[in-house]
Amino acid sequence: MSSPEIASLSWGQMKVQGSTKTYKDCKVWPGGSRAWDWRETGTEHSPGVQPADVEEVVQKGVQTLVIGRGMSEALKVPPSTVEYLKKQGIDVRVLQTEQAVKEYNALVAQD
C-alpha cells in the first residue's frame, strides 16, 4: 500500500491526495491520512512532538517518518521522540515543514 502524496501546502493548509479535506496539521501514512489535533495528547510547540503523537503512525508500520516542525520551525521534536522512533527501527527525518513535504513526496515517488 502506498502513501498518499501531499498535493499542496500553504500556511495553515495542507491537502493530501485522495482526501477531500483541507488539514491545518495532519498525519499521513501508507493508505491514509487524518487531521492531527494537538489537543489529543496535549502537544504544544515546546516540548513538542512526543512519542504519543507518533504512535498511531508507528502502528501503521512505517519504515521512515518525516516530521515537519512548522513553517517557522516553532514546533520542537525532542531527542526522546527521535530515540523512541529509532528504537522502533524507523528512519526519522525532522525538517522545516516545506522541506519536510518535499522530502516526504520524494520518498512517496520512490515508493
Furnish the topology, listing elements before pairings.
Layout: E1 6-10, E2 13-16, E3 22-23, E4 26-29, E5 32-35, H1 51-59, E6 64-68, H2 79-87, E7 91-95, H3 97-110
Parallel strand pairs: 6-7
Antiparallel strand pairs: 1-2, 2-3, 4-5
Could you explain the architecture of this structure?
- This protein has 111 residues and is an alpha+beta fold.
- 29% of the residues lie in helices and 26% in strands.
- The chain has 3 helices and 7 strands; from the N terminus they run βββββαβαβα.
- The strands form 3 sheets. The chain has a 3-stranded antiparallel β-sheet with strand order 1-2-3, covered by helices on one side. A two-stranded antiparallel ribbon has the order 4-5.
- The longest helix is centred in the last third of the chain and has 14 residues.
- The protein is globular and about 30 Å long.
